[in-house]
Structures
1.
Amino acid sequence: MTRPLLLDALRGGATFVGDGGMGTELQLAGLEPGGCGDEWNLSHAAAVQAIQRRYAEAGAQILLTNTFGTNQFVLSRYDLAEQVAEIARAAAMNARAAAGPHTYVLGDIGPCGGFLEPLGEISEDALRQTWRLAIQAMLDVGVAGIIFETMTALDEITLGVRLARELGAPLVAASMAYDPVRGGGFRTMMGVSPADGARACAAAGADVIGANCGRMEPEDFVAVAGEMAAVTDAPLMLQPNAGQPRLEGTAIVYPRGPESLAPALLELARHAAIVGGCCGTTPAHIAAFARARG
Ligand SMILES: [Zn+2]
């Protein structure tokens, strides 16, 4: 079987269906609210693989590893700071096991859980050290690339992109979470615009530039993609939430069902090479999108 490198396929104009939310699916599978989803790669490997297999069967061609918080700062809250590499390795193996022959796996890196100095208390060295463990472990298993996602701080995401480059990742994707701002336009929680985010991530060496999550409606991603495309030729990746969550009793509900989200994702596919979903999107959402895409 010959499967081109993901980056070569993207540069050749191929487009891909991404996967959907992991956190919400883990909770459906029994993860306690506030529990450590990353640890499930070790203790509940079959459940993690089952979620990822459902995404692949729904039509996702790119799966993210279940490693959103796999760094010492987040894992220390669960007394697991020493197990970054072990969890990352298990996560990459779980995703590879769930992936079909034509499914790519990207090693996922979420926000580190704090702020870099001088704003916060995390040193660049400490962040590089823990992310190096996670990234190297996933590259050793043979993931197709590394993705930084739901990021809001430029210093953090560009440090990650440069590190993944140094470690030889075959593809590096960089995706930030934007919110609408009063008066128009979009910014991350830390005040980064889509153009500034795209420019800085591309300059740091990112091959794919993206937007995901955030307090935006799926339709808002068209404007964000336009701002990014104005400053970079890199392939774009868009993974919106299934609308904005609201609290119904004690349950968090995402308003956009599969049939409501699919047309929005189809429109985003005209503006981006990789389109999937983030919070609140399920295998049923991805299946509806993949069907609509044909
Ligand atoms: Zn999200």
Note: Residues 213, 241, 278-279 surround zinc ion (CB under 6 Å).
2.
Amino acid sequence: MLRLYDNHLSGNGYKPRLLLAHLGRTYERVELDILEGETRTPEFLARNPNGRIPVLELDSGACIAESNAILFYLAEGSRFLPSDPLARALTLQWMFFEQYSHEPCIAVARHWIQHMEMTESQRAQLPDKQEGGRAALAVMEGHLAASDWFGGHAMNIADIALYAYTHVADEGGFDLSDYPHVGDWLDRVREQPGHVPMEPAPEGIVVPAGA
Ligand SMILES: N[C@@H](CCC(=O)N[C@@H](CS)C(=O)NCC(=O)O)C(=O)O
């Protein structure tokens, strides 16, 4: 059975959780405490030398790190990843945008504000992170003024990648009412049959960390 190393507060972990729910696949979910260094143990570093969740472990024991690589792997052959080369490239375009221009600002601002005591240096960097996040939301707003989805004519893994941290952007100090097309798109994603919220449901088999 697939095994997902995860943390319940992580938007990067939510991406595979959401896709697995849409695909109707069962998996074991291993909750790791990212604030207590559980992703930096020798056992976990053997699965991802970069010491971060999410990691998807296959039946063969092979491990895939990086949330968007996991989405790409799981979506192959499904309606969540097109087969046309241009449509695939445009899907990847938005997933790379998410990793370079969106997540490092919006997810990081949320993490600093919600999950930890900020250091002086983080407090000083927060306005820049929030400015970068607003710029990313403005790019999304521009795209969504003319299109319903990032992935083409229907929701695909580009939408899942971008949804994960956009729908909780308010927790990083972002006002989503400034981006009405983004708000409508969030509703469209949420209304898709099979949608699950960020908080993982206990339906996956949860095994203890380090198992
Ligand atoms: N680019 C990676 C980022 C993964 C990431 O930052 N994971 C965080 C949780 S959201 C983590 O595991 N942090 C623990 C640590 O750095 O020790 C992805 O998309 O999967």
Note: Residues 207-211 have pLDDT under 50 and may be disordered.
